[in-house]
Amino acid sequence: MTAPLIFILILLFGFLGSSVWVGFSLMSIGALSLEMFKTIRVDRFMALDFWSTATAFELVTLPLFILMGEILFQTKLSENLFAGLAPWVRRLPGRLTHVNVLGSTIFAAVSGSSAATTATVGRITLPELTKLGYNKSFVAGALAGSGTIGFLIPPSIPLIVYGVLAEVSILKLFMAGIIPGLILALLFMIYIGVRATISPELAPSTSDSTTMLFKLKSLLKLLPTFLLISFVVGSMYAGFASVTEAAAIGVLGATILAASDRRLNVKVMAGALMGTVRTCSMIAIILAGALFLSKAMARLAIPTDVAAAIAGFDLSPMALIFMLMFFYLVLGCFLDGLSTIVMTLPVTLPLVIAAGFDPIWFGVFLIITIEMAQITPPIGFNLFVIKSITGQKIGEIAIAALPFCLIMIGLVLFLTFNPGIVTWLPNTMR
Q1: DSSP secondary structure letter of residue 265
Q2: Can you give the pTM of this predicted structure?
Q3: Which of 10, 15, 335, 408 is nearest to 186 (CA)?
Q4: Terminal CA-CA length for the chain
Q5: Which residues have a Cβ under 8 Å from the Cβ of 206 and sit 6 or more positions away?
Q6: How far apart are CA 246 and CA 136, in angstroms?
Q7: Count of domains in the chain?
Q8: Is 392 left (phi over 0), alpha (psi -120 to 50) or beta?
Q9: Whole domain around residue 190: which residue ranges?
Q10: What is the tens place of the pLDDT at every residue in 20-60?
């Protein structure tokens, strides 16, 4: 291990341990490392890096998709999701608990944020299911796990960040996330069904009976959302629109939906725009710091040295993937998903590519592993979101979410041995 790398690791743990902002920490570490080990004009180097980050065309996609989610957050979408899905799952083992999974999957397709998905769906489902006598921990665990799907189903904000950093097609990343995301949702539903069958008291039956006509009418509440998703995702897959153009279509569609709910006014739009600015500013400062640190590490030849050191262990490609999975699982206990991506990718991506893995596949692999960070204490954002809604202890929610974390580990292993599941859909694109 080289002296620059040791120096950077010491600074990294020091800055993060002192609760300094991630973006500022990354910038400071990069600047101090260059000052210590390289004779270079750090100010000029930093200015050029910030300019290249700020002017990256791919980043235009980010505020548009965030704005789409912010506008929809102001509508009755969560209420419509519950009302539209509930009649179809009442007779399934686990009953209305499945609304958490299905609702999160649908909202993920218009949000791109795990925390936003959890908060939006949870505000409706958690109070309603608790009132109906469902086990509070069981429902909270299901929501915590289901909320992570927001990172995988397009338009995923972490996938956009990964695409920018890894310099791979964001459109192909979006397509690559669809099938694994749907598989994950199905696995969650299977677990809920099996668990509720073994312990029926977790999801008690209700006397409500629903006719097929009532079920079909309930789908009308979901129709606007499905149309929006179809236009956004379909336009990208068919090649009619780029990712940025599809995001613009999404903003227009979200605005129309908000207007149809009669919730579109100056206050709502101002709130959506301010929410977008806050989120984008946070992501921008982290990205700028990450890219600067990445280039600083490249100048210091750290990725090359680390790659050579790992190559010295003579690990097989599969052993490398297992090591990285364990690495990200541990790191996820202390860092949020976005920070994990931007801080580790400069080192891990070259190793993975050198081992012969597709960077598109690795993007999905990485997203699933950081999804686990959303439900692992002490940092798991989804746990805190649910705590704010239910008042439960973090530890209690984390234990309830543990089976869903294990399911995600199983999916990662499955995709490792079957990478074609990830790459098939992107490869069918025009």
Answers
A1: S
A2: 0.80
A3: 408
A4: 44
A5: 90, 95, 132
A6: 39
A7: 1
A8: beta
A9: 3-427
A10: 676 777 777 777 777 777 766 666 666 666 666 666 666 67
